[in-house]
Structure to design on (510 residues):
């Protein structure tokens, strides 16, 4: 069972159960149990091995005590507290009132959400929770469903980070590049061929301006349209000003960037990254940097609210348990998802996929980008991690095409990154997908099911575009990128026009 196709079964079972039962906690735990049984049988261990793999060293306790994971959970809690503070101080209400005057329509609210998501390109976790907390009052005013907000957040998190040279994702990708090659430079070369990320952004804007939805998203949007507007605000909420929301968020952004470059050695005189912003960012530790940034921002926010006499110290401290409680569902899902990921890793899922790629795909040069894209999608979907997918497939792409001047090498690496983001988007056990649900305060499986048709549509068009890129790569790398992008964009727009007509026809019949 170890190192074979069976290694993917625990994740597949968890995903299928979640989609069928609409209940994510038990589904993830069942996947972990199956993985523990497979690992115990494969290693010849006993009941103690099973318990260790599911609950202790390699299981739930091991994942929740991992230093990187604890940092991410701490970051979640700190952001939850900041959101509670902003709500209690009345900053969210004030921003919503301001937006109601300046943003005049549902289209405007969605465009503002997308633009804010594009601006916050530093880290996907940070993006999901910040955009959600800032834009949720605005989207609620204009009756944008929580599912649609979650889709907009999720689609401006990983897809933006994977085409932004200064982001935690760029740092991760550069870390997987071996043999002394400049990882950031390779990342930048791959951006024009990252079709899934680019098409996702185009699709968001196109659907907002075309004013239609399809799939389950259509049902959620219709349900919101007929709902009565919610009562104005919580009685305990203060009368704040827009600055009560904007200032803490701005401080959070600035301090998070400083925290990331600090963790990368930017201020360390003995470090090779001393005073080198790009290298420090590439060497950063997101878990450490985001904790430093969010903790500093929390302290500044508390001092700011006390000085403004909007909240006193007691009221600020009351937000601490409130913020923690708000993040408990996300913490539980993340812990279970991390444990399931560790289970698939211990069963050799990555090595199995690597063998499939190395053994069958390397000889199909023109079609390798499309093949890599599909395999990357499936691996990220099953394991719920983009970065783990990068770690196994990027070195394979580099080994398959050692010539750094070969265009197919760049296209294949980009296909790996695009496929990982796509699989991450589709997977219910992806931490980024979970964060988007949290940011929008949306039921997690509602977000997954409503986003899936959009993600699959972009994935199919991206697959076809990678075939075009593989066929045209011999002409010229720049020309290949232009031809492929034009082809893919036209396919996407034609698909959207077709779907709009289909939805309008269905609405008329009803």
């Amino acid at each position: 069972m170890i190192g074979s196709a069976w290694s993917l079964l625990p994740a597949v079972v968890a995903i299928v159960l979640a989609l069928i039962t609409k209940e994510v906690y038990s589904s993830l735990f069942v996947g972990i149990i199956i993985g523990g049984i497979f690992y115990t049988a494969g290693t010849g261990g006993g009941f103690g091995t099973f318990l260790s793999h599911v609950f202790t060293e390699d299981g739930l306790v091991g994942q929740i005590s991992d230093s990187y994971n604890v940092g991410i959970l701490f970051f979640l809690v700190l952001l939850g507290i900041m959101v509670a503070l902003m709500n209690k101080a009345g900053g969210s209400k004030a921003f919503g009132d301001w937006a109601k005057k300046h943003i005049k329509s549902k289209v405007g609210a969605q465009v503002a959400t997308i633009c804010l998501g594009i601006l916050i390109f530093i880290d996907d976790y940070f993006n999901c929770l910040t955009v959600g907390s800032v834009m949720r009052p605005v989207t609620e005013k204009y009756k944008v469903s929580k599912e649609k907000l979650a889709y907009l957040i999720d689609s401006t998190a990983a897809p933006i980070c994977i085409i932004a040279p200064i982001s935690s994702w760029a740092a991760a990708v550069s870390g997987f590049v071996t043999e002394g090659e400049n990882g950031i430079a390779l990342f930048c070369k791959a951006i024009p061929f990252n079709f899934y990320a680019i098409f996702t952004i185009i699709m968001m804007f196109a659907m907002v301006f075309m004013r239609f939805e399809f799939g389950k998203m259509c049902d959620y949007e219709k349900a919101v349209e007929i709902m009565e507007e919610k009562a104005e605000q919580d009685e305990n909420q203060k009368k704040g000003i827009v600055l009560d929301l904007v200032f803490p968020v701005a401080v959070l952004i600035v301090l998070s960037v400083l925290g990331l470059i600090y963790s990368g050695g930017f201020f360390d005189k003995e470090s090779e990254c001393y005073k080198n912003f790009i290298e420090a960012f590439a060497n950063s530790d997101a878990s450490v940097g985001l904790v430093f940034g969010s903790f500093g921002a929390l302290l500044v926010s508390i001092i700011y609210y006390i000085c403004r006499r909007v909240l006193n110290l007691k009221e600020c401290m009351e937000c601490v348990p409130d913020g923690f409680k708000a993040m408990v569902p996300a913490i539980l899902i993340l812990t279970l998802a991390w444990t399931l990921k560790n289970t698939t890793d211990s069963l050799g899922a990555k090595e199995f996929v690597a063998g499939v790629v190395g053994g069958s795909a390397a000889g199909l040069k023109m079609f390798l980008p499309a093949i890599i894209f599909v395999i990357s999608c499936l691996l990220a979907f099953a394991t719920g991690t983009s970065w783990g997918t990068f770690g196994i497939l990027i070195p394979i792409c580099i080994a398959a095409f050692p010539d750094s001047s070969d265009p197919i090498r760049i296209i294949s690496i980009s296909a790996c990154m695009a496929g990982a983001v796509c699989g991450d988007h589709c997977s219910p056990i992806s931490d980024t997908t979970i964060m988007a649900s949290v940011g929008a305060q949306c039921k997690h499986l509602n977000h997954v099911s409503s986003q899936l048709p959009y993600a699959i549509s972009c994935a199919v068009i991206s697959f076809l575009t990678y075939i075009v890129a593989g066929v045209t790569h011999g002409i010229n790398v720049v020309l290949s990128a232009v031809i492929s992008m034009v082809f893919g964009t036209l396919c996407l727009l034609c698909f959207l026009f077709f779907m709009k007509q289909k939805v309008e026809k269905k609405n008329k019949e009803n």
About this structure: Confidence is low (pLDDT under 50) at residues 230-235. The two ends are 51 Å apart (CA to CA). The chain is about 75% helix and 0% strand.
